[in-house]
Amino acid sequence: MTTPHPRAFVVGHPIAHSRSPLIHGHWLAEHGLAGTYERIDIHPDAFPAFVRSLREVGFVGGNVTIPHKEAAFRLAQVLTPRAERIGAVNTLWFEDGRLHGDNTDAPGFLAHLDASLGAGWPEATGVADGRAALVLGAGGAARAILVGLLERGLDRLIVANRSAERAESLTALDPARITAVPWTAVPSLLPETGLLINTTALGMAGQDALALDLAPLPGAAAVADIVYVPLETPLLAAARARALPVVDGLGMLLHQAVPGFSLWFGRTPDVTPALRARIVADLGSHG
């Protein structure tokens, strides 16, 4: 009797836009592995039943995207400490007969910072010596990124959001190291910022640009944007014009996929220029 090939998935609603099947399909082919990675559209009402059926229908695990990450957090039987802090799960797998959940957005973002800026970026940007990491936005991505920055040991994190209440809620992650400020305070904070991170939809195709004059940023500051359509947002273009190091949004998507693939298929893949080029080409052909 042959052993069935591992089956994994990405689930969301909607899900047609997901590039995850392309990423995992690339790695399966690269490593010569027998396995599948499927795109599944599930309405929120049907999500709990879907999760309960995973083992029965033969899945070894999968990725969870909008709008199911918080529901996956509630349904996983075992959570990593990181998932506990973030309150959302994007990666599921079975271990010792139980469904485990993690959030790989945090390490994915940090791995992309390391790859883009070099491992010494906290010292190079000044955030290791008192400059702030300034996070724009207070949604799920901002929460995951803040947890990643806390794990990396950064001591001065600032969150700015148009809804002050949402920004304030994120300070609970570590009140000693995270401060919430009004959106209007952002320009005055730029001179003391070593890492500026946009987690809002501003700059995304079809959205307004993020109107921010980067002139006050220190010359060593780095600018990151989690938007990847377009790959070079107006914010990143403005940073490049100032010759500041930039971190685009695509790398976070690629790096967050690594832990899941390793868990489901037993190999730890690399984020290579070939993989990146394949996703960039797909973005260009589909917009």
TrEMBL record:
How does the record describe its quaternary structure?
Homodimer.
Q: Which SUPFAM superfamilies match?
A: Aminoacid dehydrogenase-like, N-terminal domain, NAD(P)-binding Rossmann-fold domains
What keywords are annotated for this sequence in UniProt? Amino-acid biosynthesis, Aromatic amino acid biosynthesis, NADP, Oxidoreductase
Q: Which reaction does it catalyse?
A: shikimate + NADP(+) = 3-dehydroshikimate + NADPH + H(+)
Please list the residue ranges annotated as the Shikimate dehydrogenase substrate binding N-terminal domain: 10-92
According to its UniProt record, this protein's enzyme class is oxidoreductase
UniProt-listed Enzyme Commission number(s): 1.1.1.25
Question: Which residue ranges does the record assign to the SDH C-terminal domain?
Answer: 249-275
GO terms for cellular component? cytosol
Q: What are the binding positions for NADP(+) in this chain?
A: G137, A138, G139, G140, A141, I226, G249
Q: Which is a Pfam family this sequence falls into?
A: Shikimate_dh_N
Its biological purpose is as follows: Involved in the biosynthesis of the chorismate, which leads to the biosynthesis of aromatic amino acids. Catalyzes the reversible NADPH linked reduction of 3-dehydroshikimate (DHSA) to yield shikimate (SA).
GO terms, molecular function? NADP binding; shikimate 3-dehydrogenase (NADP+) activity
Name the domain of life.
Answer: Bacteria
**Amino-acid biosynthesis among the record's keywords?**
yes
Q: Where is the active site?
A: K69 (proton acceptor)
* Homology family: Belongs to the shikimate dehydrogenase family.
What does the record list as GO biological process?
A: amino acid biosynthetic process; aromatic amino acid family biosynthetic process; chorismate biosynthetic process; shikimate metabolic process
| Stated name of the protein | Shikimate dehydrogenase (NADP(+))
| Record organism | Methylobacterium tarhaniae
Give start and end of each Quinate/shikimate 5-dehydrogenase/glutamyl-tRNA reductase domain.
Answer: 129-201
Against PANTHER family, the record matches this protein to:
BIFUNCTIONAL 3-DEHYDROQUINATE DEHYDRATASE_SHIKIMATE DEHYDROGENASE, CHLOROPLASTIC, SHIKIMATE DEHYDROGENASE
- Listed InterPro entries: Aminoacid_DH-like_N_sf, NAD(P)-bd_dom_sf, SDH_C, Shikimate_DH, Shikimate_DH-bd_N, Shikimate_DH_fam, Shikm_DH/Glu-tRNA_Rdtase
Pathway listed: Metabolic intermediate biosynthesis; chorismate biosynthesis; chorismate from D-erythrose 4-phosphate and phosphoenolpyruvate: step 4/7
- Known HAMAP family for this protein? Shikimate_DH_AroE
Quote the record's binding site residues for shikimate.
Answer: S18, R19, S20, T65, N90, D105, Y228, Q256
